[in-house]
Specification:
Elements: H1 44-58, H2 61-69, H3 74-87, H4 93-107, H5 120-127, E1 135-141, E2 146-152, H6 170-178, E3 180-181, E4 196-202, E5 208-212, E6 223-228, E7 231-244, E8 247-253, E9 258-262, E10 272-276, E11 290-298
Antiparallel strand pairs: 1-2, 1-4, 3-4, 5-11, 6-7, 7-8, 7-11, 8-9, 9-10
Helix pairs in contact: 2-3
Region (Disordered): 1-28
Protein name: USP domain-containing protein
Organism: Armillaria luteobubalina
C-alpha cells in the first residue's frame, strides 16, 4: 500500500460536505445495487466494513436504520444517516467513508489517524460499542460463589480456547462459553474449594455481531444463535472480511443467500456476484487472502 498521507478534514458535518456525483463507467452502479467503495489512501479497512454494512442497510433502510440506532451510540446513528444521503444521491459512498475517517481521526486520533492503516476489528469495536452491556463474564463455583465479574459493551466476540471443551464451529464455541469448567488447581473457589466455571451471559441481542477469526480455522456457520434471557436469538452470516498483503477485501451475503465480492483496488465500486452461499468455499478470497472477520446479522433484519 502506498505511504500514508494525512489530510486535514474540512468538516465533521455530512451536510456541509461537497457533493461529487459519480461519473464515468463506475456510475453504472446505481445506489439500489450492491456497491462498494473505490480504494484511496489506506482506506481498505473502511471499504470492506462499509461494503457489508451499507449493503445490509440498503436491503431495508427503515428497518436497518432503527436497528443501527438500537446500539445506543452516535456512530451507528451517523452511519444510518450517511447511508441515507448516499442512497438519495447527495454524497458518494467514498465521501461517506472519508467523513467517518475524518471524524474518527478527530475523536479517536490515537487509533484512527487519517491515512494510516487500521483494522476492521478496531472499527467494529468502535462502531458496535453500545450504551447497554452486551455480555457478562463471571467466574463462579458450584456453590454459587462469584469470584470475578466483568461486562463488555462491544458486540464483538473473539473465539478462543474453551479449556477441555472442544469446538470446531462458532456455535459450539458460543455454547461452550455458556458454562466452561476451569481445570487447574488455582481455579478452585477460595471460599469453599469447589471447581470454578467461566460463564458468559448475553444480556442483549445486538443487530450485528463481529467475530475476529484470523487465528482460528473455524468454519463460517451460515446461522448461529445466542441465548438472551433464556431465549435463543438467531443470526445469519452477513459478511466475511479477508486480509492479506496489508489489504482487506470483503464478501456480502444478501437475504437471498447470494454472495457478492468487492476489492476496492481491483474492482473499485463494482461488486462481483460469486454465486450461492452453499456453493462457495469461504476459506479464502480470489487472491487467497485469509479470513479476518465474520459479521453476523440478526435474522430478522
Amino acid at each position: 500500500m502506498k505511504p500514508a498521507v494525512k489530510r486535514k478534514a474540512r468538516s465533521s458535518d455530512m451536510n456541509s460536505m461537497p457533493h461529487a456525483p459519480p461519473n464515468g463507467p463506475e456510475a453504472a452502479n446505481h445506489n439500489s445495487d450492491v456497491v462498494g467503495c473505490r480504494w484511496s489512501n489506506n482506506s481498505c479497512a473502511f471499504d470492506a466494513t462499509l461494503f457489508i454494512l451499507y449493503n445490509l442497510w440498503n436491503s431495508g433502510p427503515a428497518r436497518c436504520s432503527h436497528a443501527f440506532e438500537s446500539f445506543g451510540n452516535s456512530w451507528m446513528v451517523m452511519l444510518a444517516s450517511a447511508f441515507s444521503k448516499f442512497a438519495d444521491n447527495k454524497h458518494t459512498l467514498e465521501e461517506v467513508r472519508d467523513f467517518f475517517r475524518h471524524r474518527l481521526n478527530r475523536d479517536v486520533g490515537n487509533m484512527f489517524a487519517f491515512g494510516n492503516e487500521t483494522s476492521v476489528e478496531a472499527l467494529l469495536m468502535q462502531w458496535t460499542k453500545g450504551s447497554a452491556e452486551f455480555v457478562e463474564v463471571t467466574y463462579q463455583c458450584g456453590g454459587g460463589h462469584i469470584c470475578s465479574h466483568t461486562t463488555h459493551f462491544c458486540a464483538v466476540i473473539e473465539p478462543g480456547s474453551t479449556g477441555t471443551l472442544q469446538w470446531t464451529t462458532l456455535q459450539q464455541f458460543i455454547t461452550n462459553n455458556e458454562c466452561m469448567p476451569l481445570t487447574d488447581n488455582e481455579s478452585m473457589c477460595i471460599q469453599c474449594g469447589q471447581q470454578t466455571f467461566r460463564k458468559e451471559t448475553y444480556l442483549i441481542a445486538p443487530p450485528i455481531i463481529g467475530f475476529p477469526v484470523s487465528f482460528t480455522r473455524t468454519v463460517s456457520d451460515s446461522t448461529i444463535s445466542i441465548t438472551v434471557v433464556g431465549e435463543k436469538v438467531p443470526y445469519r452470516l452477513g459478511g466475511i472480511v479477508y486480509f492479506g498483503e496489508r489489504h482487506y477485501t470483503a464478501q456480502y451475503i444478501d437475504t437471498n443467500l447470494d454472495v457478492w465480492y468487492n476489492d476496492g483496488i481491483a474492482l473499485r465500486r463494482r461488486a462481483l456476484l460469486e454465486g450461492r452461499l452453499v456453493d462457495i468455499d469461504l476459506m479464502t478470497d480470489h487472491a487467497r487472502k485469509a479470513r479476518d472477520q465474520f459479521i453476523y446479522i440478526c435474522a430478522d433484519l
